Amino acid sequence: MILGVLLIICGVMIALFPPLLSLIAAVVLIMSGIFVLTLARSYRKASRRFNDPFIDVLMKF
């Protein structure tokens, strides 16, 4: 319920302030990029530590 109210408030804010949408999109892209870099770094450390072929297959993609 709280999430629904929060989404409605965000929708109204975006409707009233259109530049807010580009700011939100930029923040989401930046945070997802940071997440991917952090995840790749931790997978690389894990593959060196455990020498697991499954992790090596995941790192190739």
How many individual β-strands? 0
Which percent bin holds the helix content? over 70%
Please tell me the total number of domains. Answer: 1
- SS-derived structural category: mainly alpha
Order of helices and strands: HHH
Q: Return the average pLDDT rounded to an integer.
A: 81
Overall body shape: elongated
Radius of gyration: 19 Å
Largest sheet: none
Count of separate DSSP helical elements: 3
Spatial gap, N to C terminus = 39 Å
Describe this structure in words.
The chain has one domain. The N and C termini lie far apart (39 Å). The protein is 90% helix and 0% strand. The chain has 61 residues and is mainly α. Helix 2 packs antiparallel against helix 3. The chain is built from three helices and no strands.
Write the layout of secondary structure elements.
Blueprint: H1 2-16, H2 19-50, H3 53-60
Helix pairs in contact: 2-3
Write a short abstract of this structure.
By secondary structure, the chain is an all-alpha fold. It is 90% helix and 0% strand.
Q: What tags apply to this protein structure?
A:
61 residues; 3 helices; mainly alpha; 0% strand
